[in-house]
Amino acid sequence: MRRFFFSFVLTGSLAGAFAAPAGTQPPQADSAPGVAPKDNVKMDDATKKAVDKALKYLAGRQEADGAWASGNTAITGFVLLAFMANGHMPDQGDYGRHVAKGVGHLCSAARADGYLVGARGGNMYCHGMATLALTQAYGMTGDENVKKVTKRAIDLIVRTQNNEGGWRYDPSPTGADISVTIMQVMALRGAKDAGIHVPDKVMRDALKYVNRCYDKKTGGYKYQPFSAGAGYARTAAGVCVLQLCGEYDADEIKKAVEFLTKTGDDQGHFWYGHYYACHAMNQVGGELWEKYYKRMRDQLLAPGFQKGTGEWHDIYREAAYGPTYQTAIAVLILSVPTHYLPIYQK
Protein backbone atom coordinates (compact mmCIF):
# COMPACT_ATOMS: atom_id res chain seq x y z
CA MET A 1 0.00 0.00 0.00
CA ARG A 2 1.99 2.94 -1.21
CA ARG A 3 -0.80 5.43 -1.04
CA PHE A 4 -2.13 6.30 2.41
CA PHE A 5 -4.88 3.92 3.45
CA PHE A 6 -8.28 5.60 2.95
CA SER A 7 -6.53 8.56 1.27
CA PHE A 8 -7.53 12.10 2.09
CA VAL A 9 -10.80 11.35 3.84
CA LEU A 10 -9.02 10.62 7.10
CA THR A 11 -8.15 14.22 7.77
CA GLY A 12 -11.37 14.65 9.68
CA SER A 13 -11.02 11.98 11.66
CA LEU A 14 -20.81 -3.69 26.01
CA ALA A 15 -21.81 -2.44 28.62
CA GLY A 16 -24.19 -5.30 27.74
CA ALA A 17 -23.74 -9.03 28.14
CA PHE A 18 -22.55 -11.30 25.33
CA ALA A 19 -25.86 -13.09 24.99
CA ALA A 20 -26.93 -12.61 21.39
CA PRO A 21 -30.20 -10.94 20.47
CA ALA A 22 -32.92 -13.14 19.04
CA GLY A 23 -32.13 -14.32 15.54
CA THR A 24 -28.39 -13.74 15.83
CA GLN A 25 -27.18 -16.86 17.57
CA PRO A 26 -23.78 -17.95 16.24
CA PRO A 27 -23.66 -21.04 14.05
CA GLN A 28 -23.20 -24.32 15.87
CA ALA A 29 -20.50 -26.06 13.90
CA ASP A 30 -20.45 -29.84 14.12
CA SER A 31 -19.22 -32.84 12.26
CA ALA A 32 -21.98 -32.87 9.64
CA PRO A 33 -20.87 -33.14 6.00
CA GLY A 34 -19.57 -29.84 4.68
CA VAL A 35 -19.44 -28.22 8.12
CA ALA A 36 -16.07 -27.29 9.57
CA PRO A 37 -15.36 -28.75 13.02
CA LYS A 38 -15.63 -26.35 15.91
CA ASP A 39 -12.25 -24.97 16.91
CA ASN A 40 -11.01 -24.74 20.48
CA VAL A 41 -10.52 -20.98 20.58
CA LYS A 42 -12.87 -19.16 22.93
CA MET A 43 -13.13 -15.63 24.30
CA ASP A 44 -12.15 -15.70 27.95
CA ASP A 45 -13.55 -13.32 30.56
CA ALA A 46 -10.67 -10.86 30.26
CA THR A 47 -11.16 -10.65 26.50
CA LYS A 48 -14.90 -10.14 26.86
CA LYS A 49 -14.33 -7.32 29.35
CA ALA A 50 -11.84 -5.66 26.99
CA VAL A 51 -14.31 -5.90 24.12
CA ASP A 52 -17.13 -4.57 26.34
CA LYS A 53 -15.06 -1.48 27.12
CA ALA A 54 -14.11 -1.02 23.48
CA LEU A 55 -17.70 -1.22 22.23
CA LYS A 56 -18.77 1.32 24.84
CA TYR A 57 -15.98 3.61 23.63
CA LEU A 58 -17.00 3.18 19.98
CA ALA A 59 -20.64 3.86 20.77
CA GLY A 60 -19.61 7.12 22.39
CA ARG A 61 -17.70 8.17 19.27
CA GLN A 62 -20.67 7.89 16.91
CA GLU A 63 -21.67 11.18 15.32
CA ALA A 64 -25.17 12.63 15.05
CA ASP A 65 -25.68 11.38 11.49
CA GLY A 66 -24.72 7.82 12.44
CA ALA A 67 -21.19 7.94 11.04
CA TRP A 68 -17.80 7.51 12.64
CA ALA A 69 -14.56 9.33 11.79
CA SER A 70 -16.20 12.36 10.17
CA GLY A 71 -18.18 10.35 7.68
CA ASN A 72 -15.40 8.07 6.52
CA THR A 73 -17.37 5.16 5.08
CA ALA A 74 -14.52 2.68 5.53
CA ILE A 75 -14.05 3.36 9.23
CA THR A 76 -17.81 3.43 9.72
CA GLY A 77 -17.85 -0.01 8.08
CA PHE A 78 -15.11 -1.31 10.38
CA VAL A 79 -16.99 -0.11 13.46
CA LEU A 80 -20.26 -1.65 12.31
CA LEU A 81 -18.51 -4.97 11.78
CA ALA A 82 -17.08 -4.74 15.31
CA PHE A 83 -20.57 -4.36 16.77
CA MET A 84 -22.12 -7.03 14.55
CA ALA A 85 -19.26 -9.42 15.38
CA ASN A 86 -20.59 -9.36 18.94
CA GLY A 87 -24.24 -9.95 18.13
CA HIS A 88 -25.46 -6.37 17.92
CA MET A 89 -27.75 -6.03 14.90
CA PRO A 90 -29.75 -3.02 13.72
CA ASP A 91 -32.22 -2.29 16.53
CA GLN A 92 -31.27 -5.52 18.32
CA GLY A 93 -28.93 -5.80 21.27
CA ASP A 94 -27.52 -3.17 23.59
CA TYR A 95 -26.02 -1.26 20.69
CA GLY A 96 -28.74 -1.99 18.16
CA ARG A 97 -29.65 1.69 17.91
CA HIS A 98 -26.06 2.64 17.09
CA VAL A 99 -25.80 -0.09 14.46
CA ALA A 100 -29.09 0.93 12.85
CA LYS A 101 -27.93 4.55 12.61
CA GLY A 102 -24.58 3.48 11.19
CA VAL A 103 -26.15 1.27 8.54
CA GLY A 104 -28.54 4.10 7.71
CA HIS A 105 -25.61 6.46 7.28
CA LEU A 106 -23.86 4.13 4.83
CA CYS A 107 -27.08 3.76 2.84
CA SER A 108 -27.50 7.54 2.69
CA ALA A 109 -23.84 7.94 1.64
CA ALA A 110 -24.41 5.98 -1.57
CA ARG A 111 -24.19 7.99 -4.75
CA ALA A 112 -26.49 7.42 -7.70
CA ASP A 113 -24.03 4.99 -9.30
CA GLY A 114 -23.72 2.97 -6.08
CA TYR A 115 -20.41 4.46 -4.95
CA LEU A 116 -20.29 4.39 -1.14
CA VAL A 117 -18.09 7.34 -0.33
CA GLY A 118 -20.50 10.05 0.78
CA ALA A 119 -20.26 13.80 0.43
CA ARG A 120 -16.70 14.00 1.79
CA GLY A 121 -15.33 11.72 -0.90
CA GLY A 122 -13.18 8.63 -0.66
CA ASN A 123 -11.84 5.82 -2.81
CA MET A 124 -12.36 2.15 -3.55
CA TYR A 125 -10.89 1.20 -0.17
CA CYS A 126 -13.78 3.05 1.44
CA HIS A 127 -16.30 1.62 -1.00
CA GLY A 128 -15.19 -1.97 -0.52
CA MET A 129 -15.17 -1.78 3.26
CA ALA A 130 -18.55 -0.07 3.47
CA THR A 131 -20.04 -2.57 1.02
CA LEU A 132 -18.77 -5.49 3.09
CA ALA A 133 -20.43 -4.05 6.19
CA LEU A 134 -23.73 -3.72 4.33
CA THR A 135 -23.55 -7.30 3.02
CA GLN A 136 -23.21 -8.52 6.59
CA ALA A 137 -26.08 -6.34 7.80
CA TYR A 138 -28.32 -7.49 4.97
CA GLY A 139 -27.32 -11.12 5.33
CA MET A 140 -28.29 -11.14 9.00
CA THR A 141 -31.46 -9.03 8.79
CA GLY A 142 -32.90 -9.44 5.28
CA ASP A 143 -33.68 -5.70 5.16
CA GLU A 144 -34.80 -4.96 1.60
CA ASN A 145 -33.75 -1.30 1.76
CA VAL A 146 -30.23 -2.35 2.70
CA LYS A 147 -30.29 -4.91 -0.10
CA LYS A 148 -31.06 -2.26 -2.73
CA VAL A 149 -28.09 -0.13 -1.72
CA THR A 150 -25.83 -3.16 -1.37
CA LYS A 151 -26.73 -4.48 -4.81
CA ARG A 152 -25.89 -1.15 -6.47
CA ALA A 153 -22.59 -1.10 -4.60
CA ILE A 154 -21.79 -4.64 -5.74
CA ASP A 155 -22.74 -3.81 -9.32
CA LEU A 156 -20.24 -0.95 -9.23
CA ILE A 157 -17.49 -3.32 -8.07
CA VAL A 158 -18.32 -5.77 -10.85
CA ARG A 159 -18.23 -3.19 -13.62
CA THR A 160 -15.01 -1.52 -12.43
CA GLN A 161 -12.89 -4.68 -12.37
CA ASN A 162 -9.98 -4.11 -14.75
CA ASN A 163 -8.75 -6.43 -17.48
CA GLU A 164 -6.17 -7.96 -15.12
CA GLY A 165 -8.92 -8.99 -12.70
CA GLY A 166 -8.18 -6.44 -9.98
CA TRP A 167 -9.14 -3.00 -8.70
CA ARG A 168 -7.32 0.16 -7.70
CA TYR A 169 -8.19 3.47 -6.04
CA ASP A 170 -10.73 4.87 -8.48
CA PRO A 171 -14.08 3.37 -9.55
CA SER A 172 -12.88 2.69 -13.06
CA PRO A 173 -11.36 -0.37 -14.77
CA THR A 174 -7.83 1.02 -14.90
CA GLY A 175 -5.06 -0.13 -12.55
CA ALA A 176 -4.97 -2.82 -9.87
CA ASP A 177 -3.15 -3.77 -6.68
CA ILE A 178 -3.65 -6.56 -4.17
CA SER A 179 -4.60 -4.21 -1.34
CA VAL A 180 -7.61 -2.63 -3.03
CA THR A 181 -8.50 -5.91 -4.72
CA ILE A 182 -8.90 -7.84 -1.45
CA MET A 183 -11.34 -5.18 -0.21
CA GLN A 184 -13.55 -5.78 -3.22
CA VAL A 185 -13.27 -9.58 -3.04
CA MET A 186 -14.42 -9.61 0.59
CA ALA A 187 -17.42 -7.48 -0.35
CA LEU A 188 -18.22 -9.75 -3.30
CA ARG A 189 -18.02 -12.87 -1.15
CA GLY A 190 -20.20 -11.24 1.48
CA ALA A 191 -22.75 -10.49 -1.22
CA LYS A 192 -22.69 -14.05 -2.55
CA ASP A 193 -23.20 -15.43 0.94
CA ALA A 194 -26.19 -13.09 1.37
CA GLY A 195 -27.80 -14.27 -1.86
CA ILE A 196 -26.87 -11.32 -4.07
CA HIS A 197 -25.71 -12.43 -7.51
CA VAL A 198 -22.03 -12.09 -8.32
CA PRO A 199 -20.81 -13.48 -11.66
CA ASP A 200 -18.44 -16.41 -11.16
CA LYS A 201 -16.09 -14.94 -13.75
CA VAL A 202 -15.52 -11.88 -11.56
CA MET A 203 -14.23 -14.05 -8.72
CA ARG A 204 -12.16 -16.23 -11.05
CA ASP A 205 -10.52 -13.20 -12.64
CA ALA A 206 -9.81 -11.69 -9.23
CA LEU A 207 -8.12 -14.91 -8.18
CA LYS A 208 -5.99 -14.87 -11.33
CA TYR A 209 -4.81 -11.36 -10.56
CA VAL A 210 -3.94 -12.19 -6.95
CA ASN A 211 -2.05 -15.29 -8.05
CA ARG A 212 0.06 -13.07 -10.31
CA CYS A 213 1.12 -11.19 -7.16
CA TYR A 214 2.41 -14.40 -5.57
CA ASP A 215 6.17 -14.54 -4.99
CA LYS A 216 7.29 -18.15 -5.44
CA LYS A 217 10.69 -17.42 -3.93
CA THR A 218 9.40 -16.31 -0.52
CA GLY A 219 5.88 -17.74 -0.49
CA GLY A 220 4.47 -14.27 0.19
CA TYR A 221 2.41 -11.84 -1.86
CA LYS A 222 3.52 -8.59 -3.45
CA TYR A 223 1.66 -5.31 -3.82
CA GLN A 224 1.50 -5.73 -7.61
CA PRO A 225 2.75 -8.49 -9.95
CA PHE A 226 5.95 -6.65 -10.79
CA SER A 227 6.60 -5.07 -7.39
CA ALA A 228 9.68 -5.92 -5.40
CA GLY A 229 9.29 -7.88 -2.19
CA ALA A 230 6.42 -9.58 -0.40
CA GLY A 231 4.96 -8.22 2.82
CA TYR A 232 2.97 -9.44 5.82
CA ALA A 233 -0.23 -7.46 5.19
CA ARG A 234 -0.25 -8.25 1.48
CA THR A 235 0.34 -11.94 2.14
CA ALA A 236 -2.48 -12.12 4.67
CA ALA A 237 -4.70 -10.47 2.07
CA GLY A 238 -3.58 -12.97 -0.56
CA VAL A 239 -4.46 -15.93 1.65
CA CYS A 240 -7.87 -14.39 2.28
CA VAL A 241 -8.56 -14.08 -1.45
CA LEU A 242 -7.69 -17.73 -2.06
CA GLN A 243 -10.01 -18.83 0.73
CA LEU A 244 -12.83 -16.49 -0.24
CA CYS A 245 -12.62 -17.80 -3.79
CA GLY A 246 -12.89 -21.38 -2.53
CA GLU A 247 -9.24 -22.36 -3.06
CA TYR A 248 -8.87 -23.82 0.43
CA ASP A 249 -6.35 -26.46 -0.58
CA ALA A 250 -4.16 -24.29 -2.79
CA ASP A 251 -0.43 -24.97 -2.42
CA GLU A 252 0.12 -21.22 -2.10
CA ILE A 253 -1.77 -21.11 1.19
CA LYS A 254 0.63 -23.39 3.02
CA LYS A 255 3.67 -21.46 1.80
CA ALA A 256 2.03 -18.11 2.47
CA VAL A 257 1.15 -19.13 6.04
CA GLU A 258 4.76 -20.17 6.56
CA PHE A 259 5.76 -16.72 5.31
CA LEU A 260 3.39 -15.06 7.77
CA THR A 261 4.69 -17.17 10.64
CA LYS A 262 8.34 -16.43 9.84
CA THR A 263 7.92 -12.77 8.99
CA GLY A 264 5.92 -11.68 12.01
CA ASP A 265 4.06 -8.39 12.22
CA ASP A 266 4.17 -5.81 9.49
CA GLN A 267 5.09 -2.79 11.56
CA GLY A 268 4.14 -0.44 8.75
CA HIS A 269 0.60 -1.82 8.48
CA PHE A 270 0.08 -3.57 11.81
CA TRP A 271 -3.68 -3.09 12.18
CA TYR A 272 -4.51 -3.47 8.52
CA GLY A 273 -2.36 -6.58 8.27
CA HIS A 274 -3.92 -8.31 11.25
CA TYR A 275 -7.42 -7.47 10.08
CA TYR A 276 -6.72 -9.91 7.25
CA ALA A 277 -4.40 -12.23 9.14
CA CYS A 278 -7.04 -13.04 11.76
CA HIS A 279 -9.48 -14.02 9.01
CA ALA A 280 -6.86 -16.02 7.11
CA MET A 281 -5.56 -17.89 10.14
CA ASN A 282 -9.06 -18.65 11.38
CA GLN A 283 -9.87 -20.25 8.04
CA VAL A 284 -6.66 -22.28 8.20
CA GLY A 285 -7.71 -23.40 11.68
CA GLY A 286 -6.05 -25.92 13.95
CA GLU A 287 -2.95 -25.26 15.98
CA LEU A 288 -1.81 -22.40 13.75
CA TRP A 289 -5.02 -20.49 14.43
CA GLU A 290 -4.90 -21.25 18.15
CA LYS A 291 -1.34 -19.98 18.44
CA TYR A 292 -2.09 -16.89 16.36
CA TYR A 293 -5.17 -15.97 18.39
CA LYS A 294 -3.40 -16.45 21.72
CA ARG A 295 -0.50 -14.29 20.57
CA MET A 296 -2.80 -11.50 19.40
CA ARG A 297 -4.99 -11.72 22.50
CA ASP A 298 -1.96 -11.48 24.76
CA GLN A 299 -0.59 -8.57 22.76
CA LEU A 300 -3.84 -6.60 22.64
CA LEU A 301 -4.59 -7.23 26.31
CA ALA A 302 -1.07 -6.47 27.51
CA PRO A 303 -1.05 -3.92 30.37
CA GLY A 304 -1.35 -0.39 29.06
CA PHE A 305 -2.07 -1.24 25.43
CA GLN A 306 -5.81 -0.72 25.72
CA LYS A 307 -6.55 2.64 27.29
CA GLY A 308 -8.62 2.97 30.43
CA THR A 309 -11.49 4.46 28.44
CA GLY A 310 -11.63 1.39 26.20
CA GLU A 311 -9.78 2.38 23.06
CA TRP A 312 -6.61 1.11 21.44
CA HIS A 313 -4.42 3.87 20.08
CA ASP A 314 -0.95 2.78 19.11
CA ILE A 315 0.78 6.03 18.25
CA TYR A 316 3.65 4.26 16.51
CA ARG A 317 1.69 2.29 13.93
CA GLU A 318 -0.93 3.76 11.61
CA ALA A 319 -1.54 6.52 14.14
CA ALA A 320 -2.94 8.82 11.46
CA TYR A 321 -6.01 6.65 11.17
CA GLY A 322 -6.93 7.25 14.78
CA PRO A 323 -8.21 5.27 17.76
CA THR A 324 -11.63 4.53 16.25
CA TYR A 325 -10.02 2.62 13.39
CA GLN A 326 -7.55 0.79 15.61
CA THR A 327 -10.16 -0.05 18.24
CA ALA A 328 -12.59 -1.47 15.69
CA ILE A 329 -9.92 -3.76 14.26
CA ALA A 330 -8.80 -4.88 17.72
CA VAL A 331 -12.39 -5.83 18.51
CA LEU A 332 -12.70 -7.72 15.22
CA ILE A 333 -9.53 -9.70 15.92
CA LEU A 334 -10.61 -10.60 19.43
CA SER A 335 -14.18 -11.43 18.35
CA VAL A 336 -13.47 -13.92 15.57
CA PRO A 337 -14.29 -16.89 17.89
CA THR A 338 -17.91 -15.70 18.23
CA HIS A 339 -18.53 -16.47 14.53
CA TYR A 340 -21.48 -14.07 14.39
CA LEU A 341 -20.31 -12.44 11.16
CA PRO A 342 -21.07 -14.58 8.10
CA ILE A 343 -17.77 -13.55 6.48
CA TYR A 344 -15.90 -15.11 9.44
CA GLN A 345 -17.79 -18.38 9.33
CA LYS A 346 -16.20 -21.45 7.81
Keywords, please?
346 residues; mainly alpha; Glycosyltransferase; two-stranded antiparallel ribbon; 51% helix; 1% strand; disordered N terminus
Average pLDDT rating: 88
Total count of domains: 1
User: Termini distance?
Assistant: 28 Å
**Fold-level CATH name:** Glycosyltransferase
* Structural category: mainly alpha
Shape: globular
Report the order of strands and helices: HHHHHHHEEHHHHH
In which range does the helix fraction lie?
Answer: 40-55%
- In spatial order, strands of the major sheet run 1-2
Radius of gyration: 18 Å
Largest sheet: 2 strands, antiparallel
Architecture (CATH level 2) name: Alpha/alpha barrel
What percent of residues are in strands? under 5%
Structural description of this entry:
The protein is mostly helical and 346 residues long. It has a single domain, classed as Glycosyltransferase (Alpha/alpha barrel). Helices cover 51% and strands 1% of the residues. The two termini are 28 Å apart. The N terminus is likely disordered. This is Prenyltransferase. InterPro entries: Terpenoid_cyclase/PrenylTrfase.
